[in-house]
User: Fold this.
Amino acid sequence: MLLSRVLLTASLLLTGWALPGEHPARAQEAPAVDVALVLAVDASGSISPAEFDFQKQGIASAITNEEVLAAVTGGRHGRIAIAYVEWGRPGGAAVMVDWMQVGSLDEANLFAASVLTAERSEQSFNALGDAVVLATAMIGTCPCRPTRRVIDVSGDNPDSRSHVPAPFARDAAVAARITVNALAIISDGRIGPSGRPWLVESYEANVIGGFAAFVMAAADRSDFARALRQKMILEIAGLTPESAPDSPAQRMPVTQAAYADREWPRPMSPHLD
Assistant:
């Protein structure tokens, strides 16, 4: 785990962030929330302007959805903290909407409007690992006291050209008690070794981690809004696809990997372990 810690520390120092657990203690008056959730969305060149706008509309419709809001207000604290990040370029993951609290329809509408009106960042490639690095740092500096911490990564390709490869970024996030979930947008018919969509299998092996982390699949980009909505309900309510009672999400293309069952990647050199 030392290599992932070193890589993450170096990356955060370069970007001016503090490591989770190494920042000054939050003031006790910081508001308690049920979950601090970072939506990290693929904005790379493989996504056309029309497709990207469709993604943003999916986020806006998800956060204002009646079932999502019921999950938000049904928690112990009745509110969440949420932020929106775009990723793609190596080292270029960008905070497009910083932390906002949502505990009502008005606040949900405000977050939705902030996402819709944010200018698209300049991205390229698929540096997913660097998005996890940034999201981990953001959760460490969230002006709130979250019961749970979740990074929700969505994309249509595996990690590529990250300064911090996705498995190491994931490991560091898990060490900071953060769950990393993924939404795989299926763009072709390729199948992985176990007979499931190849991107789902890639995200299972290299991206997700933490307690009851899971991958949810969107059949294509037009399915993004449906998949994100159901994924957010589970994340906000602290559920997994298998534990949700008679949920429509159970009937969707979902895979799940428990933290204890994961086979974690190890550093190449024994001197760095």
In short: The domain at 2-19+50-262 is CATH 3.40.50.410 (Rossmann fold). The first helix runs from residue 2 to 15. Confidence is low (pLDDT under 50) at residues 1-6, 10-27, 246-273.
